[in-house]
Amino acid sequence: MPLLYHIALHKSYGIMTYMNITVIGGGTGTSNVLMGLKGYRDLNLSVIVGTMDDGGSNAVIRDELGLLPLSDIRKSVIALAEDSDKGLIRELFTYRFPEGKGLKGHTLGNLLMAAMTDITGSEIGAIETFKYLFEIRGQIIPVTLDDASLIAQYDDGSIVKGEHLIDEPKIHKNILKFTLSSKTHAYQGAVKSIENADFIVIGPGDLYTTTLASIIVPGIAQALQRSKAHIIFIPNLMSKIGQTRGLTQKTMLDLIERYIGRKVDCLLVNNGEIPEKALKRYLEKGEHIFEDDLVKEGRMIIRTDLIANSLIKKEKGDELVRSLVRHDPEKLGRELYKIFKSKKIDRFWSWLINIYR
Asked: What is the average pLDDT value for the chain, to the nearest integer?
């Protein structure tokens, strides 16, 4: 068949027109990726979120109600919700009660998620309901439905159990081994999302308590190894006590690849300047910018400005430690979409060449 016929066929029938994107992580970093990508209508977005958070409002949700931690699910709902409401959904879901016995520190979104879980009979039912209510096109998938806690073993021989305690240590120690407290298996929807993906985005987020917290769930690394998807890793902007202090870009990448069991195809690394005021506060706490000692080794490395220009203000009633600077959703979305499109074109020409062999 003529070359122009195949190009027309590709365009007419939508062969490879839509791209399946799976994002793995949680927290604000993943939310910024989702917000940056949701405006591109040729992307089928899925997000796999961790379910091990046991700090703040999640501790009550988990311990008293016996539900999975809901914060990362809630953040994904907010990130993927359509903007036709002029931000009202975001304000509603992120509202945190600053006062009130039993209410202080809780977000209204977590409480609504808990109520909908009770009404529908499952966390999955609650997610599907909010997807319908908020006109969400993407998929929000818990990494597991099993109850498990994170366990970190450190270089001084100590062992700490629980995401909150690992996330906010008093002194810095290096994690040597990172596991789960009980027998756990990946939710099948998460495995299928990885297997069906054209691109998988890992990060940004705290290396252990956000990113690796999902990857260590049995079945996830195995699915990543089987997947033919192009894997993109986005490192965090600054080091964090108890997790990445003293590491470089390469040593973080080595850790990710060791836990996944395969090579990352692309890194998206910030080279923009962190606002001076925020940087000073990080340095005073003993944190640092990661040394960029990356070498290509057959992978793509993209260095560009990904910094959000405004400082992050802490919400009233929020008692947890939060980052001061974050990735900019629009910048993330733009750079990721460039990667998707370039690889899509490469795959199309490979497909076309194979036809004419």
From this structure: 85
Class of domain 3-355: alpha beta
> How deeply is 134 buried, as exposed, middle or buried, from its count of CB atoms within 10 A (0-12, 13-18, 19+)?
middle
Written in H, E and C, the secondary structure of 201-228 is: EECCCCHHHHHHHHHCCCCHHHHHHHCC
Backbone angles phi, psi at 4, to 5 degrees: -65, -30
Beta bridge partners of 47: 23, 140
Residues 191-245 pLDDT 10s: 999 999 999 999 999 999 999 999 999 999 999 999 999 999 999 999 999 999 9
Residue, of 318 and 339, whose pLDDT is higher: 339
In angstroms, the CA 107 to CA 27 distance is 14
Residue from 265, 90, 246, 278 nearest 173 by CA: 246
Peptide bond into 275 cis (omega under 30): no
Using an 8 Å Cβ cutoff, are 294 and 253 in contact? yes
Give the model's confidence band at 111: pLDDT under 50 very low, under 70 low, under 90 confident, else very high.
confident
Tokens found for residue 201: 């985005």
CA torsion, ordered 333, 78, 18, 306, to nearest 10 deg: 10
Give kind and range of the element (H or E) at residue 283. Answer: helix 276-284
Domain assignments of the chain as residue spans, ordered by start: 3-355
Three-state secondary structure call for residue 159: strand
Lowest mean pLDDT among 79-88, 130-139, 258-267: 79-88
pTM of the model: 0.86
C-alpha 14/C-alpha 332 separation (Å) is 26
In the DSSP assignment, the letter for residue 145 is: S
Helix (H) or strand (E) holding 32: helix 27-37
Q: Is the pLDDT of residue 261 over 60?
A: yes
